[in-house]
Design a protein that fits this description.
Shape: globular
Helix content: 25-40%
Number of strands: 19
Number of helices: 11
Largest sheet: 8 strands, mixed
Bound molecules: 8-demethyl-8-dimethylamino-flavin-adenine-dinucleotide, P-hydroxybenzoic acid
Radius of gyration: 21 Å
Structural class: alpha+beta
Distance between the termini: 27 Å
Length: about 400
């Protein structure tokens, strides 16, 4: 079998790319290692930048998102157990949108399924070959049978643990990584959010974040050890710790049934080049960020915007200009996401090895941020998202 595009991975990046290409009549096959149910129930991102929302709407899969999302005009920063609202809307005229990654994935995979798009689930890609030639191949396993498909382009959208990045020859692929000495303990709770917007709190006991998924569901995080044992965190201890770190005079944290707990180690990672021959990487396959900046999914969508524009130009106009620019343009934007995400992580978390001077300077930086409008404008611009370099003509 030969198709124009094989997409490895049906996460947000792979499924949105397949959907956009489909809108322009460009055929693709999507290979996904896990089941559809598994991908749809992965609880991860919550915050979408305006451009990411606009891309979903432009692609015609934003109807439920528009109805069910929660618009946040800014964020609250917690410092010295006081809450400071940064009004992004007032500062720069744009806020952020809350919509769960699991809902987004349901919208995308549902749209593809409704049109019988070829998405093979439980079909792990096992090898990518011939990317330096004109017709690369992807080997995969499906229903107990080893198969192979050839194509014009392979898209590696298979996340951080995928195989596509490794198809770039070792002498060419460069990787950069920072592993943090802490992680996030996250919970989902049947409790109305105790703030109208997300709240990022610095506290000497560690960072804490209050977010949400709906008017009835809170999403809460605590800085913890990267290998924190969840057995040591009964619900009562979690609520008490959240109270301590998030609290402020006159404010109360709404509690409710905790129905999901997880621990995420924090890591910054990126690889370059983002393309080699006929292989193009996008999303977490090429770069991951610590979640403090809420950038991972948004960066993946920025890649998809450029890559879909590039493939549409290539297949409909025989023009490879954007495709040739993809690796440089996508990497440059991603480096800014990396910078913001690692900087934001350092701003709020307690580093176990920091000395008293460094801790005081960290607090001084936040004191400056909550009191200085110029730095708030800069923060708002980065938090709400940098522009996308190219938009697909859908
Ligand atoms: P994904 O979602 O990892 O999807 C990759 C897919 O590829 C499949 N796969 C394979 N398929 C076939 N063959 C193989 N050999 C394969 N190997 C892997 C996998 O099964 C999977 O389905 O990558 P993608 O599409 O690039 O999407 C990236 C986002 O998922 C990620 O960046 C975000 O979740 C990050 N993130 C956040 N991003 C935001 O923009 N805003 C947020 O508020 C936000 N919060 C978060 C987050 C991530 C978190 N965790 C758990 C890491 C909060 C958390 C706690
Ligand atoms: C979330 O709602 O899960 C969330 C919010 C803000 C972040 C990361 C995750 O920075």
């Amino acid at each position: 079998m030969h198709v124009p595009v094989v997409i490895v991975g049906a996460g947000p990046a792979g499924s949105l790319l397949a959907w956009i290409l489909r809108q322009r009549g460009i055929e693709s096959v999507v290979l996904e290692r896990k089941s559809r149910e598994y991908v749809e129930s992965r609880i991860r991102a919550g915050v979408m930048e305006k451009n990411a929302v606009d891309l979903m709407i432009k692609a015609g899969v934003g109807e439920r998102l528009k109805k069910e999302c929660m618009y946040h005009p800014g964020v609250v920063i917690g410092l010295h157990n006081e809450h400071h609202f940064l009004d992004f809307d007032k500062l720069i005229g744009v806020g952020v949108t809350i919509y769960g990654q699991s809902e987004l994935t349901k919208d995308l995979l549902g749209a593809l399924a409704a049109e019988d798009h070829k998405v093979f689930y439980e079909a792990p890609a096992t090898a990518i070959e011939g990317i330096e030639g004109d017709s690369p191949t992807v080997k995969y396993a499906h229903e107990g049978v080893d198969k192979e498909i050839s194509c014009d382009f392979v898209i590696g959208a298979d996340g951080f643990h995928g195989l596509s990045r490794h198809a770039i020859p070792a002498g060419i692929l460069k990787t950069y990584e920072n592993v943090y000495p802490y992680g996030w303990l996250g919970v989902m709770a049947k409790a109305p959010p105790s703030k109208e917007v997300a709240m990022f709190c610095h506290h000497e006991r560690g960072f804490a974040l209050l977010s949400m998924r709906s008017p009835k569901i809170s999403r809460l995080y605590l800085q913890c050890a990267p290998d924190e044992d969840l057995n040591e965190w009964p619900d009562e201890r979690i609520w008490e710790e959240l109270d301590t770190r998030l609290g402020a005079p006159g404010w109360e944290l709404e509690r409710g049934e905790i129905f999901q707990k997880d621990v995420t180690p924090l890591r910054s990672f990126f690889s370059q080049p983002m393309s080699h021959g006929r292989l193009f990487l996008c999303g977490d396959a090429s770069h991951i960020v610590p979640p403090t900046g809420a950038k991972g999914l948004n960066a993946a969508f920025a890649d998809v915007s450029v890559l879909s524009a590039a493939l549409i130009e290539y297949f409909t106009k025989d023009d490879a200009t954007i495709l040739d620019r993809y690796a440089g343009v996508a990497l440059a934007r991603n480096l800014q996401c990396q910078r913001f995400s690692s900087g934001n992580t350092a701003k709020y978390h307690i580093h176990p090895d920091s000395n008293p001077f460094e801790r005081r300077m960290q607090v001084a930086e936040l004191e400056y941020l909550v009191s200085d409008e110029t730095s708030q404008i800069s923060y708002a611009r980065q938090h709400t998202g940098l522009p996308f370099d190219y938009w697909p003509e859908i």
